[in-house]
């Protein structure tokens, strides 16, 4: 979990340094998707798949 928070912090730092916001947003979603998909491996495949499919939409709502 700490590594996930660190990645989010680094993406925010890069964005504040002038990185294109759209690229930072896509990188953040990609990072969180892969991290959270890994974290929910203990779930059944259908639950993990459903969770993974809703994640990008949820993150876009949070980021905006």
Give a structural overview.
It is flat, with a radius of gyration of 13 Å. It has one domain. α2 runs antiparallel to α3. The longest helix has 19 residues, at 21-39. Helices cover 83% and strands 0% of the residues. The protein has helices at residues 2-16, 21-39, 45-63. The protein has 64 residues and is mostly helical. It starts with a helix and ends with a helix.
**Which term fits the overall shape?**
flat
Number of domains: 1
Give the structural class.
Answer: mainly alpha
H/E order of the elements? HHH
Helix content: over 70%
Q: Which stretches of 5+ consecutive residues score pLDDT under 50?
A: none
In percent, how much strand structure appears in the residues?
under 5%
Number of strands: 0
**Count of separate DSSP helical elements:** 3
Average pLDDT confidence is: 60
